[in-house]
């Protein structure tokens, strides 16, 4: 699948990695997961082994097997499967990149190494370049997530001249709230066909205004359909509807953020909404509490985000 790819756009679900109660990867439900995303959420792109997928908590061989399962089960159903291959060890990252190419993934993404860190742009670009070179035919995306990596080199600075160093560079996954940096990434690269994928789901509308061409996020697993309504409203320049949709999504995210929201909670919500057992996360994460799940369920219902037969009439909060 190394032929030139059509641009990655629209929604991309950052997938969770299903696990058994004993903490082993539950490969057997990935086929159902693909069908759920496509049929129930209308989401046809996935980002595998990233933050939400606990990629950095998996062994290299587990990461390879998870990637293989998504590629196998997603064949002829998904549009694009991007594999996150970032690692602290350049060698491991290269091995994962090469593996992604061999199995026919559609792209690879890499975060900045975050223990021994690159302290300037040139060093970071050199690291990324070495990874990209292990899979030169695969579209390469830089995954900017400074709050988690602690690497705060601005994306705008990183993108300057990057294609000279990394010919397969295809875009940016921007998981930060600095819209000045994001806007300048778009503004300074208008002539290039880069994908600008935004990664803060609660602020996607602002990023669309700044020129985002798509979005990668955890909530598109279960709010994909809702978020598509916002994208469609934005496309037809119905900004007031688009804002209503964003506010509805924000009401949910704001609610769960206050309860404590992360990968564990995403797994619990996704289990609840899809009916597919995603299982607990792996240590150091802890399983979401029953109380969290009950509260999240009630909120999803009150916002009309879940099909529910016993909603009270005239529920003022419901979002259409
Ligand atoms: C840190 C993190 O996991 N960010 C995700 C993707 O980048 C987002 O999809 C968030 O989960 C989402 O925006 C909710 O805050
Ligand atoms: C959210 C996201 O993009 C990730 O899980 O990596």
TrEMBL record:
Domain of life: Eukaryota
Positions annotated to bind pyruvate: 52, 216
GO MF assignments: identical protein binding; N-acetylneuraminate lyase activity
PANTHER family: DIHYDRODIPICOLINATE SYNTHASE (PTHR12128), N-ACETYLNEURAMINATE LYASE (PTHR12128:SF21)
Main localization, broad class: cytoplasm
Keywords: Carbohydrate metabolism, Cytoplasm, Lyase, Schiff base
Active site, renumbered: 143, 173
InterPro entries: Aldolase_TIM, DapA-like, NanA
Assigned GO CC terms: cytoplasm
Keyword presence, Oxidoreductase: no
Pathway membership: Amino-sugar metabolism; N-acetylneuraminate degradation
Record flagged with keyword Nucleotide-binding: no
Signal sequence region: none
Family statement drawn from the similarity comment of this UniProt entry: Belongs to the DapA family. NanA subfamily.
Catalytic class of the enzyme: lyase
Assembly notes: Homotetramer.
Localization of this protein: Cytoplasm
The protein's name in its UniProt record: N-acetylneuraminate lyase
GO biological process, one term: N-acetylneuraminate catabolic process
Catalysed reactions, semicolon-separated: aceneuramate = aldehydo-N-acetyl-D-mannosamine + pyruvate
EC number: 4.1.3.3
């Amino acid at each position: 699948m190394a032929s030139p790819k059509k641009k990655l756009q629209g929604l991309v679900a950052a997938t969770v990695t299903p696990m058994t109660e004993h903490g082993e990867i539950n490969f057997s439900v990935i086929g159902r997961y693909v069908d759920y995303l496509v049929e129930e959420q209308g989401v046809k792109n996935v980002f595998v082994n990233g933050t939400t997928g606990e990629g950095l908590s998996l062994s290299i061989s587990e990461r390879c097997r998870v990637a293989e399962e998504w590629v196998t089960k997603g064949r002829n159903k998904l549009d694009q499967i991007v594999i996150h291959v970032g690692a602290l060890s350049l060698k491991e990252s290269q091995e994962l990149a090469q593996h992604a190419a061999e199995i026919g993934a559609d792209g690879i993404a890499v975060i900045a190494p975050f223990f021994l860190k690159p302290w300037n742009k040139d060093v970071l670009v050199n690291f990324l370049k070495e990874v990209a070179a292990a899979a030169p035919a695969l579209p390469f995306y830089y995954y900017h997530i400074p709050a988690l990596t602690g690497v705060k080199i601005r994306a705008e600075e990183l993108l300057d001249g990057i294609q000279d160093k990394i010919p397969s560079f295809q875009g940016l996954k921007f998981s930060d709230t600095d819209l000045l940096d994001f806007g300048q990434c778009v503004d300074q690269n208008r002539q290039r066909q880069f994908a600008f994928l935004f990664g803060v789901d609660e602020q996607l509308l602002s990023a669309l205004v700044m020129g985002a061409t798509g979005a990668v996020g955890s909530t598109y697993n279960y709010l994909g359909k809702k978020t598509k309504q916002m994208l469609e409203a934005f496309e037809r320049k119905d900004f007031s509807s688009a804002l209503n949709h964003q506010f509805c999504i924000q009401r949910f995210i704001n609610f769960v953020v206050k309860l404590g929201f992360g990968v564990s909670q995403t797994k619990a919500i996704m289990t609840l909404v899809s009916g597919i057992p995603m299982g607990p996360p792996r240590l150091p994460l802890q399983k979401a509490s029953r109380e969290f799940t009950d509260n999240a369920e009630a909120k999803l219902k009150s916002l009309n985000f879940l099909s529910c037969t016993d909603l009270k009439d005239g529920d003022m909060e419901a979002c259409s």
